[in-house]
Amino acid sequence: MTNPQTKKTSTKKVTVTSSTTYTKQQTTSSSALVVGQCAAVQGKADDSGTVSATSITVSAPDSDGSCASGFGGAGGPGGQGGPGGSGNDSSDGGSTNG
Description:
By secondary structure, the chain is an all-beta fold. It has strands at residues 38-45, 51-59, 95-97. It has a domain at 36-60. Strand 1 and strand 2 (51-59) form a beta hairpin.
């Protein structure tokens, strides 16, 4: 594990169980955006509310059909020097289910 601030490496023990989930990221095209999937969008919104996406994460909805990640979530660290997200700022994009 490398500390991004100090660039020092260290060893950490990580425990996984049968309920551990794994995520694979890959480059894709706009064809991955289909009705019924969840999309978490990062980018800047213009005055009309249209978001110029810099990143889109597509995932399957939860078993109840909801999108748990993205808009309305707990927020997270900002990208490329940006502030952390609050999870409720529509100018940072959002999540949609279709």
